[in-house]
Amino acid sequence: MNLWTVQTLVPLPVLVPLFAAGLALALHRYERVQRVISVVALSVAAAAAAGLVVAANDGPVVVDVGGWASPVGVNLVADPLAAIMLLVSSIMLLCVLLYSMAQGIADRHERTAPASRNAELLRDALEAQDPDADESGRRDVLPVAVFHPTYLILAAGVADAFLAGDLFNLFVGFEILLAASYVLLTLGGTSERIRAGSVYVVVALLSSIIFLLAVGLVYAATGTVNMAQLAERLPDVDPGVRLGIQSLLLLAFGIKAAIFPLSAWLPDSYPTAPAPVTAVFAGLLTKIGVYAILRTQTLLFPPNEKLEAVLLVLALATMLVGILGAVAQDDVKRLLSFTLVSHIGYMIFGVALATQASTAAAIFYVVHHITVQTALFLVVGLIERRSGTTSLDRLGGLARLAPGLAVLFFVPAMNLAGIPPMSGFLGKVGLLEAGVLDGSWLAWVLVVGSVVTSLLTLYAVIRAWNKAFWQPGGDEEDLPEQAPLPWGMVGPTAALVAVGVSLTVAAGPLYDYAERAAGTVMDGHTYVRAVFPDGPRGTGQSDEVTDDAEEGRS
Prior knowledge:
The chain is mostly helical. The protein is 76% helix and 1% strand.
Protein backbone atom coordinates (compact mmCIF):
# COMPACT_ATOMS: atom_id res chain seq x y z
CA MET A 1 0.00 0.00 0.00
CA ASN A 2 1.27 3.50 -0.84
CA LEU A 3 1.41 6.24 1.78
CA TRP A 4 -1.75 8.02 0.61
CA THR A 5 -3.79 4.81 0.80
CA VAL A 6 -2.49 4.00 4.27
CA GLN A 7 -3.19 7.50 5.55
CA THR A 8 -6.71 7.28 4.17
CA LEU A 9 -7.34 4.26 6.41
CA VAL A 10 -6.42 6.06 9.65
CA PRO A 11 -9.53 8.25 10.14
CA LEU A 12 -12.01 5.65 8.82
CA PRO A 13 -12.61 3.86 12.18
CA VAL A 14 -13.70 7.24 13.60
CA LEU A 15 -15.47 8.89 10.66
CA VAL A 16 -17.42 5.92 9.29
CA PRO A 17 -19.22 5.04 12.58
CA LEU A 18 -19.96 8.74 13.22
CA PHE A 19 -21.46 9.21 9.77
CA ALA A 20 -23.37 5.94 10.11
CA ALA A 21 -24.71 7.02 13.52
CA GLY A 22 -26.23 10.17 11.99
CA LEU A 23 -27.66 8.16 9.12
CA ALA A 24 -29.11 5.53 11.47
CA LEU A 25 -30.71 8.23 13.60
CA ALA A 26 -32.24 9.92 10.56
CA LEU A 27 -33.67 6.55 9.45
CA HIS A 28 -34.86 5.52 12.90
CA ARG A 29 -38.23 4.39 11.52
CA TYR A 30 -36.58 1.75 9.34
CA GLU A 31 -35.17 -0.92 11.62
CA ARG A 32 -33.81 -3.19 8.89
CA VAL A 33 -32.01 -0.27 7.26
CA GLN A 34 -30.49 0.64 10.64
CA ARG A 35 -29.18 -2.88 11.03
CA VAL A 36 -27.58 -2.85 7.59
CA ILE A 37 -26.00 0.55 8.22
CA SER A 38 -24.53 -0.56 11.55
CA VAL A 39 -23.11 -3.83 10.24
CA VAL A 40 -21.58 -2.20 7.16
CA ALA A 41 -20.06 0.65 9.19
CA LEU A 42 -18.41 -1.63 11.75
CA SER A 43 -17.25 -4.02 9.01
CA VAL A 44 -15.55 -1.11 7.22
CA ALA A 45 -13.97 -0.01 10.50
CA ALA A 46 -12.68 -3.55 11.13
CA ALA A 47 -11.26 -3.80 7.60
CA ALA A 48 -9.52 -0.44 8.01
CA ALA A 49 -8.09 -1.57 11.36
CA ALA A 50 -6.77 -4.75 9.74
CA GLY A 51 -5.05 -2.66 7.07
CA LEU A 52 -3.51 -0.44 9.74
CA VAL A 53 -2.15 -3.47 11.62
CA VAL A 54 -0.19 -4.36 8.49
CA ALA A 55 0.85 -0.79 7.67
CA ALA A 56 1.88 0.15 11.22
CA ASN A 57 4.23 -2.82 11.37
CA ASP A 58 6.68 -0.68 9.40
CA GLY A 59 6.27 2.33 11.69
CA PRO A 60 3.57 4.71 12.99
CA VAL A 61 1.18 6.15 10.40
CA VAL A 62 0.28 9.79 11.08
CA VAL A 63 -2.56 11.89 9.65
CA ASP A 64 -2.79 15.63 10.25
CA VAL A 65 -6.50 16.42 10.53
CA GLY A 66 -7.51 19.32 8.29
CA GLY A 67 -4.07 19.40 6.74
CA TRP A 68 -2.58 21.34 9.65
CA ALA A 69 0.73 19.87 10.71
CA SER A 70 1.65 19.22 14.33
CA PRO A 71 1.89 20.74 16.84
CA VAL A 72 -0.69 23.30 15.76
CA GLY A 73 -3.09 20.80 14.24
CA VAL A 74 -4.76 17.70 15.62
CA ASN A 75 -3.14 14.47 14.49
CA LEU A 76 -4.21 10.83 14.52
CA VAL A 77 -1.42 8.31 15.08
CA ALA A 78 -1.73 4.62 14.23
CA ASP A 79 1.29 2.87 15.70
CA PRO A 80 1.35 -0.92 16.27
CA LEU A 81 -0.26 -0.59 19.73
CA ALA A 82 -3.14 1.57 18.51
CA ALA A 83 -3.63 -0.61 15.41
CA ILE A 84 -3.88 -3.93 17.28
CA MET A 85 -6.23 -2.39 19.84
CA LEU A 86 -8.38 -1.02 17.02
CA LEU A 87 -8.56 -4.39 15.30
CA VAL A 88 -9.54 -6.47 18.30
CA SER A 89 -12.06 -3.87 19.51
CA SER A 90 -13.63 -3.64 16.04
CA ILE A 91 -14.04 -7.42 15.83
CA MET A 92 -15.55 -7.50 19.30
CA LEU A 93 -17.95 -4.62 18.58
CA LEU A 94 -19.11 -6.29 15.38
CA CYS A 95 -19.77 -9.64 17.07
CA VAL A 96 -21.71 -8.00 19.90
CA LEU A 97 -23.73 -5.97 17.40
CA LEU A 98 -24.78 -9.14 15.55
CA TYR A 99 -25.68 -10.75 18.89
CA SER A 100 -27.78 -7.76 19.94
CA MET A 101 -29.65 -7.66 16.63
CA ALA A 102 -30.55 -11.34 16.91
CA GLN A 103 -31.65 -10.79 20.50
CA GLY A 104 -33.89 -7.90 19.45
CA ILE A 105 -35.48 -9.94 16.67
CA ALA A 106 -36.04 -12.90 18.99
CA ASP A 107 -37.54 -10.70 21.71
CA ARG A 108 -39.94 -9.11 19.24
CA HIS A 109 -41.06 -12.49 17.93
CA GLU A 110 -41.67 -13.73 21.46
CA ARG A 111 -43.76 -10.66 22.28
CA THR A 112 -45.91 -10.92 19.16
CA ALA A 113 -46.30 -14.71 18.82
CA PRO A 114 -49.35 -16.32 20.54
CA ALA A 115 -48.30 -17.97 23.79
CA SER A 116 -48.32 -21.74 23.75
CA ARG A 117 -49.35 -23.77 26.76
CA ASN A 118 -45.70 -24.82 27.20
CA ALA A 119 -44.52 -21.20 27.27
CA GLU A 120 -47.20 -20.31 29.79
CA LEU A 121 -46.08 -23.16 32.05
CA LEU A 122 -42.48 -22.02 31.76
CA ARG A 123 -43.37 -18.44 32.63
CA ASP A 124 -45.48 -19.53 35.59
CA ALA A 125 -42.65 -21.73 36.86
CA LEU A 126 -40.07 -18.94 36.57
CA GLU A 127 -42.39 -16.48 38.30
CA ALA A 128 -42.84 -18.98 41.12
CA GLN A 129 -39.05 -19.00 41.58
CA ASP A 130 -38.68 -15.24 41.19
CA PRO A 131 -41.57 -12.79 40.91
CA ASP A 132 -39.32 -10.41 38.97
CA ALA A 133 -38.32 -13.03 36.37
CA ASP A 134 -40.77 -11.79 33.75
CA GLU A 135 -39.74 -8.18 34.38
CA SER A 136 -36.09 -9.25 34.07
CA GLY A 137 -36.85 -10.67 30.65
CA ARG A 138 -38.46 -7.42 29.57
CA ARG A 139 -35.47 -5.44 30.78
CA ASP A 140 -33.24 -6.97 28.10
CA VAL A 141 -35.36 -5.60 25.24
CA LEU A 142 -33.21 -3.06 23.39
CA PRO A 143 -34.89 0.08 21.94
CA VAL A 144 -33.51 -0.32 18.43
CA ALA A 145 -34.07 3.28 17.27
CA VAL A 146 -31.80 4.54 20.06
CA PHE A 147 -29.46 1.59 20.35
CA HIS A 148 -27.89 1.62 16.87
CA PRO A 149 -26.87 5.33 16.71
CA THR A 150 -25.61 5.21 20.29
CA TYR A 151 -23.64 2.03 19.69
CA LEU A 152 -22.00 3.52 16.60
CA ILE A 153 -21.07 6.68 18.50
CA LEU A 154 -19.50 4.48 21.17
CA ALA A 155 -17.44 2.73 18.46
CA ALA A 156 -16.28 6.08 17.09
CA GLY A 157 -15.26 7.27 20.56
CA VAL A 158 -13.28 4.09 21.17
CA ALA A 159 -11.41 4.50 17.87
CA ASP A 160 -10.70 8.17 18.54
CA ALA A 161 -9.26 7.33 21.97
CA PHE A 162 -6.90 4.76 20.47
CA LEU A 163 -5.73 7.02 17.62
CA ALA A 164 -5.48 10.30 19.55
CA GLY A 165 -2.15 12.02 19.13
CA ASP A 166 -2.72 14.66 21.80
CA LEU A 167 -4.12 14.62 25.31
CA PHE A 168 -7.12 16.81 24.58
CA ASN A 169 -8.22 14.63 21.66
CA LEU A 170 -7.83 11.64 23.98
CA PHE A 171 -10.14 13.46 26.41
CA VAL A 172 -12.65 14.05 23.58
CA GLY A 173 -12.54 10.37 22.63
CA PHE A 174 -13.24 9.40 26.24
CA GLU A 175 -16.17 11.81 26.46
CA ILE A 176 -17.70 10.56 23.21
CA LEU A 177 -17.65 6.94 24.33
CA LEU A 178 -18.72 7.79 27.88
CA ALA A 179 -21.70 9.86 26.71
CA ALA A 180 -22.80 6.90 24.58
CA SER A 181 -22.20 4.49 27.46
CA TYR A 182 -24.52 6.50 29.73
CA VAL A 183 -27.37 5.91 27.27
CA LEU A 184 -26.58 2.24 26.72
CA LEU A 185 -26.32 1.51 30.44
CA THR A 186 -29.79 2.90 31.18
CA LEU A 187 -31.65 1.44 28.18
CA GLY A 188 -35.05 0.27 29.32
CA GLY A 189 -35.31 2.86 32.09
CA THR A 190 -35.83 0.41 34.97
CA SER A 191 -35.16 1.67 38.49
CA GLU A 192 -32.24 -0.75 38.88
CA ARG A 193 -30.56 0.52 35.71
CA ILE A 194 -31.18 4.17 36.57
CA ARG A 195 -29.62 3.64 40.00
CA ALA A 196 -26.59 1.83 38.57
CA GLY A 197 -26.32 4.34 35.75
CA SER A 198 -26.33 7.24 38.22
CA VAL A 199 -23.36 5.78 40.08
CA TYR A 200 -21.56 5.14 36.79
CA VAL A 201 -22.21 8.70 35.56
CA VAL A 202 -20.96 10.29 38.79
CA VAL A 203 -17.78 8.21 38.80
CA ALA A 204 -17.14 8.79 35.08
CA LEU A 205 -17.68 12.54 35.41
CA LEU A 206 -15.29 12.65 38.37
CA SER A 207 -12.58 10.92 36.35
CA SER A 208 -13.24 13.25 33.41
CA ILE A 209 -12.90 16.35 35.62
CA ILE A 210 -9.60 15.05 36.98
CA PHE A 211 -8.39 14.28 33.44
CA LEU A 212 -9.36 17.75 32.21
CA LEU A 213 -7.58 19.34 35.18
CA ALA A 214 -4.46 17.32 34.32
CA VAL A 215 -4.65 18.46 30.67
CA GLY A 216 -4.86 22.08 31.81
CA LEU A 217 -1.83 21.66 34.07
CA VAL A 218 0.10 19.98 31.26
CA TYR A 219 -0.56 22.92 28.95
CA ALA A 220 0.35 25.42 31.65
CA ALA A 221 3.65 23.63 32.31
CA THR A 222 4.70 22.89 28.73
CA GLY A 223 2.66 25.03 26.35
CA THR A 224 1.37 22.03 24.40
CA VAL A 225 -0.88 18.96 24.67
CA ASN A 226 0.59 17.15 21.66
CA MET A 227 1.95 13.85 23.00
CA ALA A 228 4.97 13.76 20.71
CA GLN A 229 5.96 17.27 21.77
CA LEU A 230 5.22 16.44 25.41
CA ALA A 231 7.64 13.53 25.16
CA GLU A 232 10.32 16.15 24.37
CA ARG A 233 9.28 18.77 26.93
CA LEU A 234 8.00 16.98 30.04
CA PRO A 235 11.42 15.56 31.05
CA ASP A 236 12.61 19.19 31.41
CA VAL A 237 9.69 20.22 33.66
CA ASP A 238 10.27 20.63 37.40
CA PRO A 239 10.18 17.11 38.94
CA GLY A 240 7.55 18.05 41.52
CA VAL A 241 5.22 19.52 38.90
CA ARG A 242 5.82 16.53 36.63
CA LEU A 243 5.01 14.10 39.44
CA GLY A 244 1.78 15.97 40.18
CA ILE A 245 0.71 15.80 36.53
CA GLN A 246 1.63 12.13 36.29
CA SER A 247 -0.30 11.32 39.46
CA LEU A 248 -3.41 13.15 38.23
CA LEU A 249 -3.35 11.28 34.94
CA LEU A 250 -2.92 7.98 36.75
CA LEU A 251 -5.83 8.82 39.05
CA ALA A 252 -8.13 9.72 36.14
CA PHE A 253 -7.21 6.64 34.09
CA GLY A 254 -7.17 4.41 37.17
CA ILE A 255 -10.86 5.20 37.77
CA LYS A 256 -11.69 4.40 34.16
CA ALA A 257 -9.64 1.17 34.29
CA ALA A 258 -11.19 0.15 37.66
CA ILE A 259 -7.92 -0.23 39.55
CA PHE A 260 -8.33 -0.92 43.27
CA PRO A 261 -9.39 1.05 45.34
CA LEU A 262 -11.13 2.91 42.51
CA SER A 263 -13.08 -0.13 41.31
CA ALA A 264 -15.99 -0.39 43.77
CA TRP A 265 -18.41 1.12 41.22
CA LEU A 266 -17.93 -1.56 38.56
CA PRO A 267 -19.53 -4.76 39.98
CA ASP A 268 -22.73 -2.86 40.78
CA SER A 269 -22.96 -1.01 37.45
CA TYR A 270 -22.14 -3.49 34.69
CA PRO A 271 -24.38 -6.48 35.57
CA THR A 272 -27.60 -4.41 35.42
CA ALA A 273 -27.32 -3.62 31.69
CA PRO A 274 -28.60 -5.84 28.84
CA ALA A 275 -26.24 -8.68 27.97
CA PRO A 276 -24.75 -7.07 24.81
CA VAL A 277 -24.11 -3.79 26.63
CA THR A 278 -22.53 -5.55 29.61
CA ALA A 279 -20.30 -7.51 27.23
CA VAL A 280 -19.04 -4.34 25.53
CA PHE A 281 -18.47 -2.53 28.80
CA ALA A 282 -16.66 -5.46 30.44
CA GLY A 283 -14.62 -6.38 27.41
CA LEU A 284 -13.58 -2.95 26.21
CA LEU A 285 -14.19 0.16 28.32
CA THR A 286 -11.82 -0.68 31.17
CA LYS A 287 -9.12 -1.62 28.63
CA ILE A 288 -9.24 1.89 27.20
CA GLY A 289 -8.23 3.14 30.64
CA VAL A 290 -5.39 0.61 30.69
CA TYR A 291 -4.38 1.74 27.17
CA ALA A 292 -4.28 5.38 28.30
CA ILE A 293 -2.08 4.46 31.28
CA LEU A 294 0.24 2.46 29.05
CA ARG A 295 0.46 5.19 26.43
CA THR A 296 1.07 8.13 28.77
CA GLN A 297 3.36 6.42 31.29
CA THR A 298 5.74 5.05 28.67
CA LEU A 299 5.73 7.92 26.17
CA LEU A 300 5.45 11.06 28.26
CA PHE A 301 7.25 10.47 31.53
CA PRO A 302 10.77 9.29 32.40
CA PRO A 303 11.04 6.24 34.70
CA ASN A 304 10.02 6.88 38.31
CA GLU A 305 10.86 3.99 40.62
CA LYS A 306 8.68 5.18 43.50
CA LEU A 307 5.60 5.60 41.32
CA GLU A 308 6.25 2.26 39.65
CA ALA A 309 6.40 0.64 43.11
CA VAL A 310 3.03 2.20 43.96
CA LEU A 311 1.60 0.79 40.72
CA LEU A 312 2.93 -2.66 41.58
CA VAL A 313 1.22 -2.53 44.98
CA LEU A 314 -2.04 -1.40 43.38
CA ALA A 315 -1.77 -4.16 40.78
CA LEU A 316 -1.40 -6.77 43.52
CA ALA A 317 -4.33 -5.33 45.50
CA THR A 318 -6.49 -5.24 42.36
CA MET A 319 -5.73 -8.88 41.60
CA LEU A 320 -6.40 -10.21 45.09
CA VAL A 321 -9.37 -8.07 46.12
CA GLY A 322 -11.07 -8.65 42.78
CA ILE A 323 -10.67 -12.42 42.78
CA LEU A 324 -11.68 -12.77 46.44
CA GLY A 325 -14.82 -10.85 45.57
CA ALA A 326 -15.45 -13.22 42.66
CA VAL A 327 -15.09 -16.31 44.86
CA ALA A 328 -17.75 -14.95 47.22
CA GLN A 329 -20.40 -14.39 44.52
CA ASP A 330 -23.43 -16.58 43.83
CA ASP A 331 -24.42 -14.80 40.61
CA VAL A 332 -22.54 -15.42 37.36
CA LYS A 333 -22.71 -11.80 36.19
CA ARG A 334 -21.29 -10.43 39.41
CA LEU A 335 -18.68 -13.19 39.54
CA LEU A 336 -17.42 -12.24 36.09
CA SER A 337 -17.50 -8.54 36.99
CA PHE A 338 -15.16 -9.20 39.90
CA THR A 339 -12.84 -11.33 37.75
CA LEU A 340 -12.76 -8.42 35.33
CA VAL A 341 -11.49 -6.15 38.10
CA SER A 342 -9.01 -8.79 39.23
CA HIS A 343 -7.43 -9.32 35.82
CA ILE A 344 -6.93 -5.60 35.28
CA GLY A 345 -4.22 -6.12 37.89
CA TYR A 346 -2.26 -8.33 35.48
CA MET A 347 -2.16 -5.55 32.90
CA ILE A 348 -1.07 -2.93 35.44
CA PHE A 349 1.61 -5.38 36.61
CA GLY A 350 3.09 -5.33 33.12
CA VAL A 351 2.89 -1.54 32.86
CA ALA A 352 4.44 -1.00 36.30
CA LEU A 353 7.52 -3.14 35.56
CA ALA A 354 8.24 -0.69 32.72
CA THR A 355 10.38 -3.02 30.60
CA GLN A 356 9.89 -3.96 26.97
CA ALA A 357 9.22 -7.59 27.93
CA SER A 358 6.59 -6.69 30.53
CA THR A 359 4.93 -4.16 28.21
CA ALA A 360 4.73 -6.73 25.40
CA ALA A 361 3.16 -9.25 27.80
CA ALA A 362 0.68 -6.61 29.00
CA ILE A 363 -0.33 -5.79 25.40
CA PHE A 364 -0.79 -9.48 24.60
CA TYR A 365 -2.86 -9.92 27.76
CA VAL A 366 -5.09 -6.95 26.94
CA VAL A 367 -5.88 -8.43 23.51
CA HIS A 368 -6.57 -11.81 25.09
CA HIS A 369 -8.76 -10.39 27.84
CA ILE A 370 -10.95 -8.28 25.54
CA THR A 371 -11.99 -11.33 23.53
CA VAL A 372 -12.35 -13.77 26.42
CA GLN A 373 -14.20 -11.50 28.84
CA THR A 374 -16.62 -10.35 26.13
CA ALA A 375 -17.31 -13.93 25.07
CA LEU A 376 -18.04 -14.96 28.66
CA PHE A 377 -20.58 -12.18 29.16
CA LEU A 378 -22.30 -13.08 25.90
CA VAL A 379 -22.50 -16.70 27.07
CA VAL A 380 -24.00 -15.53 30.35
CA GLY A 381 -26.61 -13.67 28.32
CA LEU A 382 -27.47 -16.98 26.64
CA ILE A 383 -27.63 -18.70 30.03
CA GLU A 384 -30.01 -16.06 31.31
CA ARG A 385 -32.17 -16.42 28.23
CA ARG A 386 -32.20 -20.21 28.52
CA SER A 387 -32.91 -20.39 32.25
CA GLY A 388 -34.39 -17.03 33.18
CA THR A 389 -31.73 -16.42 35.84
CA THR A 390 -28.00 -16.03 36.43
CA SER A 391 -28.14 -17.11 40.08
CA LEU A 392 -25.86 -20.08 40.70
CA ASP A 393 -28.21 -21.27 43.45
CA ARG A 394 -31.05 -21.65 40.95
CA LEU A 395 -29.12 -22.85 37.90
CA GLY A 396 -28.25 -26.48 37.28
CA GLY A 397 -28.33 -29.30 34.77
CA LEU A 398 -27.62 -27.10 31.75
CA ALA A 399 -24.97 -29.49 30.43
CA ARG A 400 -27.77 -31.99 29.73
CA LEU A 401 -30.29 -29.45 28.45
CA ALA A 402 -27.85 -27.32 26.41
CA PRO A 403 -24.50 -29.10 25.90
CA GLY A 404 -23.35 -26.57 23.31
CA LEU A 405 -23.84 -23.78 25.81
CA ALA A 406 -21.75 -25.70 28.33
CA VAL A 407 -18.86 -25.84 25.84
CA LEU A 408 -19.20 -22.14 24.97
CA PHE A 409 -18.80 -21.24 28.64
CA PHE A 410 -16.11 -23.79 29.46
CA VAL A 411 -13.60 -22.82 26.75
CA PRO A 412 -13.27 -19.07 27.52
CA ALA A 413 -13.54 -19.80 31.25
CA MET A 414 -10.49 -22.05 31.07
CA ASN A 415 -8.76 -19.44 28.93
CA LEU A 416 -9.48 -16.78 31.55
CA ALA A 417 -8.09 -19.04 34.27
CA GLY A 418 -4.87 -19.51 32.26
CA ILE A 419 -4.98 -23.24 31.55
CA PRO A 420 -2.09 -24.31 29.24
CA PRO A 421 -1.64 -23.85 26.35
CA MET A 422 -4.32 -21.18 25.96
CA SER A 423 -3.59 -17.49 25.36
CA GLY A 424 -4.38 -16.60 28.97
CA PHE A 425 -1.61 -18.94 30.10
CA LEU A 426 0.85 -17.51 27.57
CA GLY A 427 0.13 -13.91 28.59
CA LYS A 428 0.55 -14.76 32.28
CA VAL A 429 3.78 -16.62 31.63
CA GLY A 430 5.12 -13.55 29.83
CA LEU A 431 4.23 -11.35 32.80
CA LEU A 432 5.71 -13.79 35.31
CA GLU A 433 8.92 -14.05 33.31
CA ALA A 434 9.19 -10.26 33.20
CA GLY A 435 8.67 -10.15 36.97
CA VAL A 436 11.38 -12.76 37.58
CA LEU A 437 13.79 -10.89 35.31
CA ASP A 438 13.12 -7.70 37.27
CA GLY A 439 14.36 -9.50 40.38
CA SER A 440 13.13 -7.00 43.00
CA TRP A 441 11.34 -8.31 46.07
CA LEU A 442 8.17 -6.46 45.10
CA ALA A 443 8.22 -8.03 41.65
CA TRP A 444 8.57 -11.46 43.26
CA VAL A 445 5.58 -10.70 45.49
CA LEU A 446 3.61 -9.86 42.33
CA VAL A 447 4.73 -13.13 40.73
CA VAL A 448 3.39 -15.10 43.70
CA GLY A 449 0.22 -12.99 43.80
CA SER A 450 -0.34 -13.59 40.08
CA VAL A 451 -0.13 -17.35 40.53
CA VAL A 452 -2.50 -17.26 43.51
CA THR A 453 -4.97 -15.10 41.55
CA SER A 454 -4.83 -17.49 38.62
CA LEU A 455 -5.56 -20.49 40.86
CA LEU A 456 -8.46 -18.67 42.54
CA THR A 457 -9.81 -17.71 39.11
CA LEU A 458 -9.74 -21.38 38.14
CA TYR A 459 -11.60 -22.24 41.34
CA ALA A 460 -14.23 -19.54 40.77
CA VAL A 461 -15.02 -20.45 37.15
CA ILE A 462 -14.98 -24.21 37.80
CA ARG A 463 -17.37 -23.69 40.70
CA ALA A 464 -19.65 -21.59 38.48
CA TRP A 465 -19.54 -24.16 35.66
CA ASN A 466 -20.22 -27.02 38.07
CA LYS A 467 -23.23 -25.30 39.64
CA ALA A 468 -24.73 -24.03 36.40
CA PHE A 469 -24.03 -26.96 34.07
CA TRP A 470 -23.00 -30.11 35.87
CA GLN A 471 -24.90 -30.58 39.09
CA PRO A 472 -28.67 -31.06 38.80
CA GLY A 473 -30.87 -28.03 39.44
CA GLY A 474 -33.30 -28.10 42.34
CA ASP A 475 -36.37 -27.38 40.21
CA GLU A 476 -35.05 -28.71 36.91
CA GLU A 477 -37.70 -31.43 36.55
CA ASP A 478 -40.54 -28.99 37.17
CA LEU A 479 -39.60 -26.81 34.21
CA PRO A 480 -40.69 -27.72 30.68
CA GLU A 481 -38.23 -27.76 27.81
CA GLN A 482 -37.65 -24.27 26.40
CA ALA A 483 -37.27 -23.40 22.72
CA PRO A 484 -33.68 -23.56 21.40
CA LEU A 485 -31.57 -20.44 21.65
CA PRO A 486 -31.60 -18.20 18.53
CA TRP A 487 -28.75 -19.08 16.21
CA GLY A 488 -28.25 -15.38 15.56
CA MET A 489 -27.13 -15.04 19.18
CA VAL A 490 -25.24 -18.32 19.43
CA GLY A 491 -23.28 -17.71 16.19
CA PRO A 492 -21.55 -14.42 17.19
CA THR A 493 -20.83 -15.86 20.63
CA ALA A 494 -19.23 -18.95 19.10
CA ALA A 495 -17.29 -16.72 16.70
CA LEU A 496 -15.87 -14.68 19.57
CA VAL A 497 -14.98 -17.86 21.48
CA ALA A 498 -13.22 -19.05 18.32
CA VAL A 499 -11.31 -15.76 18.12
CA GLY A 500 -10.10 -16.38 21.67
CA VAL A 501 -8.94 -19.87 20.69
CA SER A 502 -7.27 -18.51 17.54
CA LEU A 503 -5.14 -16.25 19.73
CA THR A 504 -3.60 -19.45 21.09
CA VAL A 505 -3.03 -20.85 17.61
CA ALA A 506 -1.49 -17.58 16.39
CA ALA A 507 0.24 -16.79 19.67
CA GLY A 508 3.72 -16.70 18.09
CA PRO A 509 3.05 -14.02 15.45
CA LEU A 510 0.76 -12.11 17.82
CA TYR A 511 3.38 -12.05 20.58
CA ASP A 512 6.01 -10.91 18.06
CA TYR A 513 3.69 -8.07 17.04
CA ALA A 514 3.12 -7.20 20.72
CA GLU A 515 6.88 -7.01 21.19
CA ARG A 516 7.20 -4.65 18.22
CA ALA A 517 4.35 -2.56 19.63
CA ALA A 518 6.09 -2.48 23.00
CA GLY A 519 9.35 -1.47 21.36
CA THR A 520 7.64 1.45 19.60
CA VAL A 521 5.90 2.50 22.81
CA MET A 522 9.04 2.29 24.93
CA ASP A 523 11.17 4.06 22.31
CA GLY A 524 9.54 7.47 22.28
CA HIS A 525 11.90 8.71 19.54
CA THR A 526 10.15 6.52 16.94
CA TYR A 527 6.80 8.07 17.83
CA VAL A 528 8.22 11.61 17.86
CA ARG A 529 9.99 11.20 14.50
CA ALA A 530 6.79 9.91 12.92
CA VAL A 531 4.76 12.88 14.15
CA PHE A 532 7.53 15.45 13.55
CA PRO A 533 9.52 14.31 10.51
CA ASP A 534 10.90 17.89 10.19
CA GLY A 535 12.10 18.09 13.78
CA PRO A 536 10.58 18.36 17.25
CA ARG A 537 9.04 21.80 16.61
CA GLY A 538 7.11 20.72 13.49
CA THR A 539 5.98 23.07 10.73
CA GLY A 540 2.61 24.01 12.25
CA GLN A 541 1.30 24.87 8.78
CA SER A 542 -1.51 23.49 6.67
CA ASP A 543 -0.83 21.88 3.32
CA GLU A 544 -2.73 24.68 1.54
CA VAL A 545 -0.73 27.42 3.26
CA THR A 546 2.53 25.66 2.42
CA ASP A 547 1.50 25.20 -1.21
CA ASP A 548 0.45 28.87 -1.53
CA ALA A 549 3.75 30.01 -0.03
CA GLU A 550 5.72 27.91 -2.48
CA GLU A 551 3.72 29.30 -5.41
CA GLY A 552 4.37 32.85 -4.18
CA ARG A 553 8.12 32.25 -3.96
CA SER A 554 8.16 30.84 -7.48
